[in-house]
User: What shape does this take?
Amino acid sequence: MARFHVFEMHLRNVFVIVGHVLELILCLFVAVGLFISLKPLSGQLGALLTGESLDFHHFLESAFNLVIGIEFIDMLTKHSPGSAIEVLLYALVRHMVIEGGSTLNMLIGTLAILVIFVVRKFFFVKSFEEKYAGEDPPEEIRGAAGEGHS
Assistant: This one.
């Protein structure tokens, strides 16, 4: 029975490592896509500056997509609730600004943003990594997280 438990723990560790590697590969792909997307965005900016194009809406849409991509990479690398909330917030704001929609859709979007800020203000708990940076967390926290048990 003890051997099975050790095997199970090793297998879980392998899956955690595989998951992290896949996340890093995804981050790399998104980063490459972001760099590729900078060229058309700079072209759109140049067209706006020279007066060749007055399509600011399209430029803003492309810029928002890049910001969301950057925040998505941040979310995948940090693994923090705060970065996930920021991705949601940027996606909501992008939808409201770019897509627009009816008054009801704008009201729902505004309420969703309000809920995000309320959650962030009153229910957001800093991760233990930030709170105990550079020091070992107390025993009760290590025990609750499953650490320290052999």
About this structure: DSSP finds six helices and no strands in the chain. Residues 143-150 have pLDDT under 50 and may be disordered. Helices lie at 2-50, 56-78, 81-99, 103-123, 128-131, 139-144.
